[in-house]
Amino acid sequence: MLSSLLHYQFLQHAVIAGLLASVICGIMGVMITEKKIVMMSGGIAHTAYGGIGLGYFLEFEPIWGAFFISITAALIMGYMQRRSQGSPDMLIGLFWSAGMALGIVFITFTPGYPPDITSYLFGNILAVRRADIIIMAILTVAVILAVAALFNQWKAYLFDEEFTYMRGINVAFLDYLLLVLVAISVVILIRVVGIILVLALFTAPSVIARMFASDFKKIMQIATLIGAGFCFFGLWISYELNLASGASIVLLSAVVCLLASAVRHLTKA
Amino acid sequence: MASSTEHYQVSAAPVQVNNVSAWYGQTQALSKVSLTVQEKDFLGIIGPNGGGKSTLLKAILGLIIPGEGSIRLFGEHPRKTRFQVGYVPQINRLDRNFPINVQDLVLLGKLPRKAAFFHRFSRRDRDEVLELLEKTGLLELKYRQISQLSGGEFQKALIARALAVKPRLLVLDEPTASVDARSREQIFNLLKELNQIMTILLVTHDLSAISSHVTSLACLNGSLFYHGIPELSETVIGEMYGCPVDLLAHGIPHRVLRSHEREGG
User: Fold this and answer.
1) For B89-122, how does the pLDDT look when each residue is reduced to its tens digit (9 = 90+)?
2) Does B121 touch chain A (CB under 8 A)?
């Protein structure tokens, strides 16, 4: 694969997309797992499908549909969660399936042959275009800035929301911003692993990184490296064995994560 | 106008609770509670589980808005003055596996309240945190992860974080609930010392500790049953808990109250 990498632009794009994706799983994965909003993130991810469908229906770039719909859904879910104060379980379930259903309805209404939407569902890193890379890069920089600019505030918020509120900090703003960052991350990762598989990349790298480090920033850095490893080796496996790239990356992440947990469990006991 | 409100702020009592009622859905948690905490008071709030202690605490801190009545923190809406409070939450409410060490945890009390992008803690912040770690006896544990701390050590770290705020009012929610006897004594001694310079409000189950340490006491079971000097009669306790005194929870036997009564009298 390495020699082909020099010759084929689509492989170069794939590698760049993988690197951007791993930065996102490194940073946002740690935020999501520490705040315990993995399922909330799943809900937001699946509403993106409604946006993809809207894009096809109204004939604009589906990824922008995903961008606007998932951010809107994130804000609505954030608002409803703040209002109800209870477990977000039901809310997540509702948005999860309603988002998917919306996408299906839009695509059914779209005239002509139904478009192939599997690449949005399961990702196809080999189909990443130059335009996608540019969008991904801009969004990745935006996420990094949002996390870095408020790093100490994020740390306080993730650990103890009430104390952070008492400090005079606008916790509601951080609540909403976190969910919006999740929505943006989903959009970045859609091309690589797709809506359905996105949760594995949010969790596996940070779970493993957590075993090696106990400093917040270090965990993010290690998770990024691990994510990069998953993307690259997953891509290699998919290239050599002719498998779907998203599925290869996700299966590799899951298997390594489970093995790492098992090894840790055995060595501890 | 501006100067008169400033004057009001200085003279206002740290906490004023006026006729506060609160509901959770159909259940009434607080009923017409009025209470004032004066400067340098050390108020202990006791009462049975479900008696509205944490609801009252959350209302005072501005974390919930009561259905009826009003709360003033230093004469203002809690939203405006909340940053003057050092808040010590219950330790079992927090995630002990969060990746942070003792020093960095206490440093979070130094977070600026104004929006600050790319904020970094100053040398002075760090020095003050080291002083607080010294004061709470945690200096040697400063690089230890909070997951590696005992209950007492974690509790002291949370108190240090609240003190890093430089509060005028320290609010503690069950600070001795999951703490060994030695740490418990250390915590109460520390609070006694702190009470010289700040007002303290404490919610607890720990009746024996309350009796010997606080300067005033409030007994809460939906409504306020008693508010005054820390001297409890069996009648008050009986009324408040609605059960025989020796059943009243958490291994505080009957005689502790009685002997305390003798001390008080």
Assistant:
1) 999 899 999 999 999 999 999 999 887 899 999 9
2) yes
Size of interface A-B (CB pairs under 8 A): 74
CB-closest option in B87, B111, B161 to A169: B111
Domains in chain A and their CATH numbers?
2-268 (1.10.3470.10)
* pTM score, whole prediction: 0.90
The contact set of A with B (CB < 8 A) is: 34, 148-153, 155-156, 158-160, 162-170, 210, 213-216, 219
The residues pairing with B224 across neighbouring beta strands, listed in sequence order, are B220
pLDDT digits (tens, 9 = 90+) for B150-196: 999 999 999 999 999 999 999 999 998 888 989 999 999 999 999 99
Residues B218 and B42: their CA atoms lie apart, in Å, by 11
Categorise residue A172: left if φ over 0, alpha if ψ from -120 to 50, beta otherwise.
alpha
Kindly list the residues from chain A whose CB atom is less than 8 angstroms away from the CB atom of residue B108: 152, 155-156, 159-160, 163-164, 167
- What's the DSSP call for residue A150? T
CA A90 to chain centre: 21
Cα A142 off chain centre by: 14
Length in residues, chain A? 269
